[in-house]
Amino acid sequence: MKTIMDFRHCTRREYMAIFPILAMAVLIFVLRNMEILKSQFQQNLITTSIVALNDSTQHDMHQGFCTFQPLSREDAVEEILLLETIAWPEPPLLPAPLSLNQTSDPAHSSFTILPGRGGGQWHVGDQLEVLIKMSDFQDRPKKFGGDFLLAQLRNQELGAGVAGQVVDHLNGSYSAVFSLLWEGDAQVQVMLVHPSEAIPVVNRLNNEQPDRIIFKSVFRSGRLSETTICNVCLRPTQQPLCNYTDPRTGEPWFCYKPKKLSCGARVSHIRGDIKKNLENKLLKSGVNMKVYIPASGPASVLVLPKNEGQPEEKSSIVTSGPSGYYYQGAWRALDGTTVHQFNTASAITQCLKGKVVLMYGDSTIRQWFTHLIAALPGLKGFDLHTHKQAGPLMALDYANNILMMFRCHGPPIRFGPVPTTELRYIANELDDVTGGINTVVVLGLWAHFSTFPVEIYIRRLQNIRRAVVRLLDRSPGTLVVIRTANPKKLYETVTISDWCALQRDKVLRAMFKGLNVHLIDAWEMALAHNLPHDLHPQPPIIKNMIDILLSYICPQKGS
Q: What integer pLDDT is reported at residue 275 of this predicted model?
């Protein structure tokens, strides 16, 4: 036992003697290799921020030059589910090169009103089903789905209209189902927005060319000024990058570093040119983009009064049903909301009295701001010497204690020039809102994300949703209203696809489902109206949107 103890003590003394020598050796190794370790660490950071662009055959943008911050497990699962939810039917592999003649042709396609079980009679409360059959330019019936179709039922004399629900049967035929909500004539309209063969082109364009809208920033120090290109996604070059990723939200934004100035000299954000390369050989304006499909028989039905005591005629196609419809030019919601008409300045003023209305988003939200200023003589805009598009904009009715503000969402934003001090992310702004029963928050962002991979939009909304939840937790009485996307004019669709807007619209609805927020369905409100589609809907549609907003703010007793 003594021998063993002596051995242990001896070993401990030897270790104590060797340890300083080992420590000194490690220190010398680290000092000698510090520059190598530093270089490797910097290279890892660059690799994390900007991934090298693979060869042109790689279509997955995750392997490209876009930056994606790591997601929590919960957010990552949600992103996967959202991508599955909006997945679009893909056409089969066709012989290359694909020509226009092989795509869906609205002129050779047609729709037919099905007779239904009522023997050709329809009553208010019934559902009307329309069968759509697609053919290509050589009059060959399509054998697969994926066409982007919009359907509408309207009566212009009554100022009535409702959007149809389109169902893809994946075999070249589609069903459009309409709720019959008024008596009298009801005319069916079916529009081909994009042929199925062009959808992958549109989607691939967003993944491979997310930088086709050029953003720039001005850098200035004294008399020296430089301008460089900026974006969420920047192609790797030898030019160093300035990383302006938001520290609170993690939202990425980058600029190429100026040659002479530092990254801290950035003073403004501006939008440059748009590479209008979306309209390719498979997409032709007025030929197979936003063109109406003819009827193979009658294009309208006569809707009789509600047939009391008889079961309503329902389509065998299960759809979600419309969110509302127009009648005599006024929107009637079908989600339980009673929409009141605020037709006078005094009625609007009385509703907004004592309110703070905070609007965040794009130009479609700014449109609401300018509409209310025009409608209320007592609401005076303040000249804050800011950009008229980007804001911030402010208006005040001092006598009635009404404050209204608009601020554009953070980049990507196609306004400019905007001082970098005014580039704010909605999530950060919401975290600075006190909230309460007299605070109304209005949100709307979609159009400026239509040229990017949808993952960028998903992550922006996840940040905003978290901020909304925090706001409602600390101030449950705060009213939050969100505007959805809407279809656009043909020339706007050529540059920024309506299909992309629809995908983001679906994401937004799913993202805020179940929260104590109100949606204003701009998509159906634009689709159901007889006015042409427009990125900025015309005044009659905006007036109806404002009526819904005010109905949320001031619900009348019994509503």
A: 72
Kindly give the parts of the chain with pLDDT less than 70: 1-64, 67, 117-118, 276-280, 491-495, 557-559
In DSSP terms, which residues pair with 324 in a beta bridge? Answer: 333
Structure tokens at 395: 């208006």
Tell which CATH classification among 3.30.450.20, 2.40.30.170, 3.20.20.70, 2.60.40.10 matches the domain 100-198+287-304: 2.60.40.10
Structure tokens at 6: 């002596």
- Two tokens, residue 518: 């109100």
Q: State the pLDDT at residue 381.
A: 86
Q: What is the pLDDT of residue 12?
A: 40
Cα–Cα distance, 441 to 467 (Å, whole number):
12
Give the count of alpha carbons within 13 A of 30, CB side only.
6
Q: What is the pLDDT of residue 481?
A: 98
CATH assignment of 336-553? 3.40.50.1110
Q: Structure pTM?
A: 0.85
H or E element that contains 149: strand 148-155
In sequence order, the 6+-apart residues with CB closer than 8 A to the CB of 49 are 67, 241, 243, 254
Ordered alpha helix ranges (H), 50-91: 73-85
The Cβ of residue 268 has, within 10 Å, a number of other Cβ atoms equal to 19
Strand partners, 262: none
* Tokens encoding 474: 């600390």
- Confirm if 312 and 303 have CB atoms less than 8 A apart: no
Q: Give the span between the Cα atoms of 283 and 88, in whole angstroms.
A: 18
